[in-house]
Specification:
CATH class of the largest domain in chain B: Mainly Alpha
Distance between the termini of chain B: 27 Å
Mean pLDDT of chain B: 87
Strand order of the largest sheet of chain A: 1-2
Radius of gyration of chain A: 28 Å
Chains: A mainly alpha, B mainly alpha, C alpha/beta
Low-confidence stretches of chain B: 1-9
Structural class of chain A: mainly alpha
CATH topology of the domain at 87-279 in chain A: MetI-like fold
CATH superfamily of the domain at 87-279 in chain A: MetI-like
CATH architecture of the largest domain in chain B: Orthogonal Bundle
Largest sheet of chain A: 2 strands, antiparallel
Number of helices of chain A: 12
Strand content of chain A: under 5%
Order of helices and strands of chain B: HHHHHHHHHHHH
Largest interface: A-B, 90 and 96 residues
CATH class of the domain at 87-279 in chain A: Mainly Alpha
Number of strands of chain A: 2
Order of helices and strands of chain A: HHEEHHHHHHHHHH
Number of strands of chain B: 0
CATH architecture of the domain at 87-279 in chain A: Orthogonal Bundle
Low-confidence stretches of chain A: 1-7
Strand content of chain B: under 5%
Oligomer: heterotrimer
Chain lengths: ~325, ~300, ~325
């Protein structure tokens, strides 16, 4: 069949064996690999840099303000002449918005996830999934605007007749919850979809209906992923800035009711950062001290999440 | 013939599942309510945000600068240009670094080595760090190098660091999707692993990477928190003219305007929101187009 | 009860072989040494001897590659044990045996493709022109250039036909006067030129399965190896494409040493000069199976005069 020139082995002086030992040093190769590895190692560098960047001004801060005042004081007024640096008010603000947010995000997010995973027809999925993706893609400033100019005045004050001012942790918390719904929903849905069909069929074969199967078989089987999604949502809620900066409040005070005005940790950072703050000043250092606290809190949340996921996975 | 397997994937009608009991129906209604609420909220949010601003969708929005005293004619020109500049810097920094890191982790890293495990742990943590912390990181960095922090370059760096984990993940998934047989074929011919990645694996992964990168950049476009410490000069009334120029971006400008009590500022904020949402829509459409058109089905 | 599970294109001879096996089971287990009765018996099983070509195979082998006491491990698991073989220049050597007896593992160890697998390790010597390819100073990239490989499932690159062929020479830095000529030469040698010469710039994915596999062979030829390894090259192809691949193998034999793993005994009988039969030893308790070379000889002897009972059992279909 072959009529063309031979495409055979290379011509070689008879008797000599081909040399397969290393000749090309391939420096370019090694350099490129170094570059690739370096890019990956950058992530470690970034983490270190975050810690350093936050800790340095914080050290200066804690030279002027004691730990106990910071962590246990109940008055936060860092920019006043008679300054107080108790961070608890900010923490209550964050707690309220986060709590309200999760009250919205968890039931609705899980509900959407269950519906998508167990009940929805393809036609509905085609609409619902993009809706969730759009919700996830809306910038937080837009949510903040919505909280401030619609949820607070129209929804809460006019429609529900609540005693809220322009700013309230309730308005901010509700919108924060909506923003987090996609996070909870998509991760939970992934977890539930990954449950093998055989488990569901086993349940149906025993005579359970869909609701029971979902709640008693699928949900527990996916609990690891679902928990992870909730904790991730929690982490996002704590770290979210724009919504609370716009709508939660500017007054740092111990918040006692959802209708109250309250500044959160992130809100404080946002509202102070836009003002003048020169490096080295107490205001600047205060900012970073709160930032460090925020970072530590979210880090702890994430570590707890990781360990919950690991432990539940082993049990299951 | 419909087999058990093919039926199993389709949710069937309620009757076949024995969903007639009161509890089941109530449950279903609750689920519908959850879903409906999400959809409804999205609708109300979009409509409301845009209604307020319709009145200010005029030329001045694009050509004029912001102004403290004349909110009626304030414009987002500086913000739009500033966003463009910053996103350009972000893309230039984040995409090469993210792709390189993703390729390394997926193709070259031995997952059992301690340093690679450390990198993985770090990436997971970084993905969950609040956005504002990246701004503080960059401010601190700028300070220690002696750089001015309220400049375009700093803003680009902060956002690049923010979206780096996203790009790494997108790269890894796209690279992972390339079948091993392609790599085997290349290596069996006498190509080095790096040649194989550069000439076969990566080109095949490009559509997925591009999609992920565009989506990451669209997220960066909407972020304000990291830039507050870096570009927070409230009223910028000039075009950015270089990496070391002061700047503002659309989301920051919106934040500033929305914080003001006057109705006119509320309106122009809303108008700027419309502009920003349209930009985001275009970017997302582009990403989806690329994915549908170029994604290789193996 | 053994089942004859070989995938063969010639279905009918299969059926007769298994019928013959059933009949032969009733016969006494014949003694292993060759005897006229045994030869008759093997022929009567409708067996494979009529496939074996009447080709003169030199009794003395002129090896271009060899294995000396080769063990291949994946971590602690020994996949292949104590293999000693030689692969002759300008010969086709077939590796046959039931599934799971390490044939693919072994062949992938011949061009260091097994290096890519986590925890893979080779003990013993695998020599190429008398040089152990696992020596420290050996460049595995160079090894793979010189010992080519064709895979079970055709794996063309998502590029044009031309670029598929040109890829090897480009990445290995081969000096070519005219890439067009190299491409034409390789495609011609792989019996594919006439079918694709007008569509060189089109995607390789547009070719049929058999054409793609010939493309992969042409691709390998372009980097000028002197050994070609084939891991079940035709098992994913239809009978006609398979026949063309086998014809191609016989032609390529004139310039290359070819090692082919095949599940298809008829194929081995048709094309191979020498055949190595492997079986699997089950480890006690764990069920892990280690591959073991049972017999290695000129093909005619393997199929007509096997020395080992296990070989005979496999050939005659008592187990698959």
């Amino acid at each position: 069949m072959a009529t063309g020139p031979r495409s055979g082995p290379p011509d070689r002086p008879p008797g000599s064996a081909p040399d397969i030992t290393h000749h090309k040093k391939r420096y370019g190769e090694r350099l490129a690999l170094l570059g690739l590895g370096g890019s990956a190692a950058l992530s470690v560098g970034i983490t270190i840099a975050i810690v350093v960047a936050l800790v340095r001004p914080s050290i200066d801060f804690f030279r002027e303000v004691s730990f106990s005042e910071f962590l246990t004081g109940t008055r936060w007024a860092p920019t006043f002449a008679d300054a107080d640096f108790g961070v608890l008010p900010l923490i209550t603000g964050t707690l309220w918005t986060t709590f309200i947010g999760l009250t919205i995000a968890v039931p609705l997010g899980l509900g959407a996830a269950i519906y998508l995973s167990e009940y929805a027809h393809d036609r509905v999925r085609k609409i619902l999934k993009p809706v969730l993706e759009i919700l996830a893609g809306i910038p937080s400033v837009v949510y903040g605007y919505f909280a401030l100019y619609f949820v607070a005045p129209v929804l809460l004050k006019d429609l529900l007749n609540l005693e809220v001012g322009t700013f309230s942790v309730l308005a901010a918390g509700l919108v924060l919850g909506v923003m987090i719904i996609p996070t909870v929903a998509s991760l939970s849905e992934d977890a539930m979809s990954a449950v093998p069909q055989a488990l569901r069929q086993g349940s149906y074969a025993l005579g359970a209906n869909r609701m029971r199967t979902t709640l008693r078989v699928v949900f527990p089987a996916a609990i690891s992923g679902i928990t992870a999604s909730i904790v991730l949502g929690l982490s996002r809620a704590v770290g979210e800035t724009m919504i609370v900066a716009l709508a939660a409040g500017t007054r740092a005070q111990i918040v006692t009711a959802p209708t109250g005005n309250g500044q959160t940790m992130t809100g404080f950072i946002a509202q102070t950062a836009t003002g003048e703050s020169s490096p080295g000043s107490l205001t600047y250092n205060t900012l970073f001290a709160v930032g460090l606290l925020l970072f530590v809190i979210t880090l702890i949340i994430n570590l707890i999440a990781a360990s919950i996921v690991r432990r539940i996975r082993e049990v299951y | 013939m419909a087999t058990i397997g093919s039926l199993a994937g389709q949710p069937m009608r309620a009757e076949r599942y024995g969903d007639r009991s009161f509890g089941s129906i109530a449950f279903l209604i609750a689920l519908w309510a959850a879903v409906g609420f999400a959809v409804l909220t999205l609708g109300v949010l979009l409509v409301d945000s845009m209604l307020d601003g319709a009145v200010r969708l005029d030329g001045a929005l694009f050509t004029r600068y912001s102004s403290q005293i004349l909110p009626e004619t304030a414009g987002a020109r500086a913000a739009i240009l500033g966003s463009a500049w910053v996103i350009a810097v972000t893309a230039t920094l984040a995409i090469p670094l993210g792709v390189a890191a993703g390729v390394y982790l997926e193709e070259f890293a031995d997952p059992k080595r301690w340093y690679n495990k450390l990198i993985e742990v770090n990436l997971t943590n970084l993905a969950a760090v609040p956005a504002i912390v990246y701004g503080m990181l960059t401010a601190g960095l700028a300070l220690s190098i002696g750089l001015e922090r309220r400049v375009v370059l700093a803003g680009g760096i902060a956002l690049a660091l923010l979206i780096l984990p996203v790009i790494i993940i997108a790269t890894r998934e796209s690279v992972r999707a390339v079948p091993q047989e392609i790599r085997d074929g290349s290596l069996a011919l006498g190509a080095t692993p790096l040649q194989t990645v550069w000439r076969q694996t990566l080109p095949s992964a490009v559509p997925g990477i591009a999609t992920g990168a565009i989506l990451a950049l669209s997220r960066a476009l909407g972020e304000a928190a990291p830039l507050l410490l870096l570009g927070g000069l409230v009223f910028v009334n000039y075009d950015p003219d270089g990496l070391f120029s002061g700047f503002t971006t659309l989301p920051i400008q919106i934040f500033n305007w929305a914080s003001q009590p006057q109705l006119a500022f509320q309106q122009v904020a809303s108008a700027a929101i419309i502009v920003m949402l349209i930009l985001l829509l275009m970017m997302n459409a582009l990403a989806i187009f690329i994915r549908n058109r170029y994604q290789k089905r193996w | 009860m053994a089942t004859f599970s070989t995938r063969t294109p010639a279905g009918t001879s299969d059926a007769s072989a298994s019928d013959g096996a059933a009949r032969a089971t009733a016969d006494a287990r014949a003694a292993v040494p060759s005897s006229p009765e045994r030869e008759d018996h093997l022929r009567a099983t409708g067996g494979l001897t009529h496939h074996v070509r009447d080709r003169h195979v030199a009794p003395e082998i002129d090896p271009v590659m060899a294995c000396e006491n080769v063990d291949v491990y994946y971590g602690d698991f020994r996949a292949v044990t104590n293999v000693s073989l030689e692969f002759g220049k300008n010969e086709i050597t077939a590796l046959i045996g039931p599934s799971g007896c390490g044939k693919s593992t072994l062949i992938r160890s011949l061009n260091r493709m097994n290096d890519l697998v986590e925890g893979a390790r080779v003990e013993g010597r695998v020599t190429y022109h008398d040089k152990n390819i696992y020596d420290r100073d050996v460049d595995p990239i160079e090894v793979r250039r010189r010992i080519g490989m064709v895979f079970q499932k055709p794996n063309p690159f998502p590029k044009s036909i031309y670029d598929n062929i040109a890829y090897g020479p480009r990445v290995t830095g081969m000096k070519v006067d005219s890439m067009d000529e190299v491409v034409e030469e390789s495609l011609t040698r792989a019996a594919l030129w006439d079918e694709v010469k007008d569509k060189l710039k089109q995607s390789a994915f547009g070719l049929s399965g058999g054409q793609q596999q010939r493309l992969c062979i042409a691709r390998t030829l372009a980097v000028k190896p002197d050994v070609i390894l084939m891991d079940e090259p035709a098992s994913a192809l239809d009978p006609i494409a398979t026949a063309r691949i086998e014809d191609l193998m016989l032609e390529l034999r004139e310039d290359f040493a070819i090692v082919v793993v095949t599940h298809n005994m008829q194929q081995a009988a048709r094309v191979a000069d020498r055949t190595a039969f492997f079986t699997a030893l089950a480890a006690e308790g764990s069920g892990d199976r280690t591959g073991l070379l049972v017999e290695y000889d000129v093909t005619r002897n393997i199929f007509q005069n096997p020395r080992d009972k296990r070989t005979e059992d496999y050939i005659s279909g008592r187990f698959g």
